[in-house]
Every structure is written in C-alpha cells, then in structure tokens.
C-alpha cells in the first residue's frame, strides 16, 4: 500500500498459533481501522495473518511504513511475544503495549479481557511510558568477538554437555571461581523470569541494577549478587572446561562459547519502552501475577490472624 505520512500507524505483533490470538488480532485491526489508524505488521506476520484477517488496508513494516512512523505497538501474547516485539523495535522510540494471552505474562500491561478498553485508551493517548533497563552483551574468544548482542530480561551462560568452571567478575575485579550449571546476568525486568527460577531476588523495575545469579553452583559462596547499573559483569569460561558452553539472550538468541570465552554485560544505552495505562504499584502486579496469598494480612489481625 502507499504510505500516507498524515495518518497514524500502530504496529500489531501477534501469531497464528493460538485461536485467541487470531480473535484478538481481528479485534485490534477492526478498532484501528474504525479510528482511521493504519494497522502495521511485520512481513512474516502479515503473511501469516493474510488468511485469517482482512489485510487489504494494513501495511507492512519496513516496506510500506518505516519504523520511525509507528506510534505504538500492540503486542498480543505472552512474554515470548513481547520479547520478539522488543527485537523488532530495537533502536526505536516506539513503546510496547502488551496484552497478555499467555499464562503469567509478567511483561504485559493488560489482560485479554481488557482488550477493547486498552485499544480505546491507547488511541486517546491515555498512557505513560516506562523505560526498562536493557543489557549490552559481548562475547569474545581468543581476542575475537563472537557475539555482539543485547537482552531485555537476561543473558545466561549455560553448560553444554558438562558442568562449567567459570570465573565471575564485577568491574574488572574477580569475585569467585566455581563449578555450576550456568550463570544468569539479569535486569530488574528479568528478575521475575529466569533469574527468579534460578533463586535470584525479585527487583522492582524502577530500581536501576544488574543481577548475577549462579545456577546450581558448587561453592560455599553461591548467592545472587546485585550490582549498580553502571557496573560491568563478566563471566569467563575457564580453559580447562570440556566441551562448549552456550550464551542465551532472552532465551531467543544463541551463541556457542568455546572454553576460554569471556562474556561481558553492561547497561545498554537503548532502553526498552513499555506503555502503561495505570499507575498501580509493582507490588500489586506481583501479587496478581503470582497469585500470592495475602488475605487476612492486615484485616484479620484483630481476630488473632497474623
């Protein structure tokens, strides 16, 4: 289609693997068109949805519409879909409005039941944008760069076939050497994901920090560490390791790490922007997403319940 710079353009990131995603995509496309907004899809999604959605007035990102003209991205799915959208939007100022169609969906702002309300509020511009700390990730071996990438949730160094021997450092100072199944280098956003599963703390998204979480470390000092946002984290795969390790970024981008490789992580200059409709505290989301038991915490104190 011919690009019309006078119109508003909003990206939709979804997938055709689940019927509820197809229904939600149809609803958003219809609402945008009714409001005179052009729905935009990545080329792959445009092709996938062409048999499920009327795409005659939709546009293809990069071909019909430049990323710089996209106002906001509706992301329909779970955290994996939001991480895919973050890849697409990398380097732009476009915020992500996540609508959870998955299970926990910690990155999503809204639930699928609120889809109509969400679209209405975004169209009216009634949202704020949080900037989430992201990571720059560099992997080197024998003086050569083997990966130069990034992550929103975490970069994890994991064993291949055998347990790893690693040296962990912060700000160019060694902290500890130990054997382990891996090390998670996480952002506060990722602290509710892999880092949490590995035994790390939950860190509020507003806190600027970097986390180091060992996975099944054979060491007396195997506790998670929380470093400052300007710190530099390193994980060195010791030369005596048998077999390669693996670097994963957000569980999506994979790099093999030969013995002797070094992974360096620092705060990225490009944050990920998450759109929000309300100012509910993170503690409320934590309770809701993890279904934490809180009834009686205050109201029942007079009845002998702690």
TrEMBL record:
Record keyword Transferase present: yes
Subcellular location per the Swiss-Prot or TrEMBL entry: Cytoplasm
Any one Gene Ontology molecular-function term assigned to this protein's record: NAD binding
Xref: Gene3D superfamilies: Probable inorganic polyphosphate/atp-NAD kinase, domain 1, Probable inorganic polyphosphate/atp-NAD kinase, domain 2
InterPro entries linked to this entry: ATP-NAD_kinase_N, ATP-NAD_kinase_PpnK-typ_C, NAD/diacylglycerol_kinase_sf, NADK
Annotated catalytic residues: 79
BP GO annotations: NAD+ metabolic process; NADP+ biosynthetic process
Cofactor(s) named in the record: a divalent metal cation
Amino acids binding NAD(+): 79-80, 84, 153-154, 181, 192-197, 216
Top EC class of this enzyme: transferase
Catalytic activity from the UniProt record: NAD(+) + ATP = ADP + NADP(+) + H(+)
EC number(s) stated in the UniProt entry for this protein: 2.7.1.23
Keywords recorded for this protein, A-Z: ATP-binding, Cytoplasm, Kinase, NAD, NADP, Nucleotide-binding, Transferase
UniProt cross-references to Pfam families, sorted A to Z: NAD_kinase, NAD_kinase_C
Organism domain of life: Bacteria
GO cellular component: cytoplasm
Hydrolase found in the keyword field: no
Family of the protein in this entry: Belongs to the NAD kinase family.
Function summary: Involved in the regulation of the intracellular balance of NAD and NADP, and is a key enzyme in the biosynthesis of NADP. Catalyzes specifically the phosphorylation on 2'-hydroxyl of the adenosine moiety of NAD to yield NADP.
Name of the molecule in the record: NAD kinase
Organism: Leucobacter denitrificans
């Amino acid at each position: 289609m011919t690009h019309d710079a006078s119109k508003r353009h909003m990206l939709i990131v979804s997938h055709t693997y689940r019927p509820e995603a197809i229904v939600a995509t149809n609803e958003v496309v219809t609402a945008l068109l009714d409001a005179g907004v052009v729905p935009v899809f990545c080329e792959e999604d445009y092709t996938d949805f062409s048999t499920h959605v009327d795409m005659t007035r939709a546009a293809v990102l990069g071909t019909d519409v430049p990323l710089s003209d996209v106002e906001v991205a509706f992301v329909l799915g779970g955290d994996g879909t939001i991480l895919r959208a973050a890849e697409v939007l990398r380097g732009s100022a476009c915020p992500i409005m996540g609508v959870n169609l998955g299970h926990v969906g910690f990155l999503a702002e809204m639930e699928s039941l609120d889809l109509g309300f969400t679209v209405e509020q975004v169209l009216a511009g009634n949202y704020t944008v949080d900037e989430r700390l992201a990571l720059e990730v560099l992997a080197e071996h024998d003086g050569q760069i083997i990966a130069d990438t990034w992550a929103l949730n975490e970069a994890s160094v994991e064993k291949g076939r055998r347990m790893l021997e690693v040296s962990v450092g912060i700000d160019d100072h060694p902290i500890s050497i130990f054997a382990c199944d891996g090390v998670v280098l996480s952002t506060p956003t990722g602290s509710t994901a892999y880092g949490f599963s590995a035994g790390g703390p939950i860190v509020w998204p507003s806190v600027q920090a970097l986390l180091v979480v060992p996975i099944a470390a054979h060491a007396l000092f195997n506790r998670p560490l929380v470093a400052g946002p300007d710190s530099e984290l390193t994980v060195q795969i010791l030369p005596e390791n048998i077999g390669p390790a693996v670097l994963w970024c957000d569980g999506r981008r994979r790099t093999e790490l030969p013995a002797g490789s070094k992974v360096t992580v620092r705060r990225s200059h490009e944050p990920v922007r998450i759109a929000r409709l309300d100012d509910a505290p993170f503690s409320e989301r934590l309770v809701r997403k993890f279904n934490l038991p809180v009834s009686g915490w205050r109201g029942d104190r007079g009845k002998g319940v702690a």
